[in-house]
Design brief:
6 helices; 237 residues; alpha/beta; two-stranded antiparallel sheet; seven-stranded mixed beta sheet
Length: 237
Amino acid sequence: MTIAAIVPARSGSKRVKNKNIKLLGGKPLFFWTLEACLRAPSIDFVVLSTDSMEYWEMAVSAFGDNSLHLDLRSESEAGDQKKIYDYLKEKGSAIFDQNHPIPEAFILALPTCPFRTEEHLESAIGVFKKTGAPVFSCSEYEFSPVFAFQILEDGWETLSDDNPMITGSTRSQDQPDLYRPNGALYIRSVSDLSSPQPPTLYTDARPFVMQRSESIDIDHEEDFIIAEGLMRAGYVT
């Protein structure tokens, strides 16, 4: 089975300027994901999907271009209102280098989840091959979302009547284990890109569980500080 990895790294970022090239552990953030994908034996080639030739030149300088392909996006295609899966479905198999055979499956790996490794990728690919079902990565919530509520002008309101703030069952041991997608990896058949279905990356997919320390999502400046702390403490390398 031929498999391509897609790493989307746009240059625009509102919360953290130039987030994808901000240094983490001494290297640009998006390098962590490129390295993991390039090291995974089951991945045949990696597509860097970006609107920045600077990012592409950085990647080629660091890793060479033997296994890297460029998908150069326009400003509108890389805008913060454009969902990456919508973009992939609009572009379809054209995202892959047409000088090579179109792969049978793709892995979407977001650079904002830097601590996914080639071992994670290989294990998830194993699930995909064994079950024939799409795969997405997830991790357990740090704090149970069953406590979620919204703040109103005159107080607050829970999202359900089962909220422990209503029932009084507030012990953490009494709460169910709940998970969230972490953006580290999504695996699907390339044929899904040319089909009106599935509507999301999660449709009919199997969850692949990762540890919370491996699942940090870099979205704010403090996330870089937390990630560096996890590295210094030896939780990730």
